[in-house]
Design goal:
Layout lengths: L4 H12 L2 H31 L17 H28 L14 H26 L1 H9 L3 H8 L3 H12 L3 H29 L2 H33 L19
Helix pairs in contact: 1-9, 2-3, 2-9, 3-4, 3-6, 3-9, 4-5, 4-6, 4-7, 5-8, 6-7, 8-9
Amino acid sequence: MSLQISSALRSGGEKLLSRTGAILLAAYTVLMASLLPLSNTMVVRLYERAGLTEATEAMPLVLDVPLSVAVGGYLVGTLAGGYLSIVAIRTFVAGDGGQFPPGAFTRNVPLALANAVVGGLVYSLLIGLGTIALVVPGIIAYVAFLFMLPYVAVEDRNFVDALRSSYRLSKGHWLVLFVLVVIVVSVAGLLGGVGGLVSSLLLPPVVGQLALAVLTAPGSLFSLAVIAAAFEQLREAEPDDPAGAAPTAETPSTPV
């Protein structure tokens, strides 16, 4: 069965508008608003080291901390974002918008986060190499390994097994997945672009940047919700395969 784009988009929207989606959205919004002054501070400190202080005089939300502290805080915030993504994928795949599934916040968090981070780096490397090769291989890599995170978060796979399973699950659906990704990215980009334009024209710099962070959060979370919906849809249509079955107590996955 082919992936149904309209169904994935509708399901993703419903997940985002659910009770658990609202809670996750609030957490994402707070995180993005918290990362903003850290990223601004890093930019200002780097410009100062290059002697370009004039270029940073008007930049808002700059903390009075050294570059090392800003970088450390940003890395911690990035890890927190990875953790929230794992929780979100687990919640969205579970399908109950009224409550979080058991273990969503606590099950195998260190291993899941480690595999998500390393797997994400490998995923980005594959996309980058594919894009350098001739662009098209990069696009194929993007959609072929799109379900790496769901396999890591939901089925406790290690990143190698998750990449392999994502390739197997997505094979035969690459074109449809590409169209789905384009739609989701366009929606998120439109929301952020329009919000950024309005914020820059009508709001003071500090409020405008915070408003943009608030407007960016729904697009990011909607992307995860749609990926979870597509993952559910394709996994339900997949024939039973012991090699691709979810880990159980008798046949656990092999995390790194």
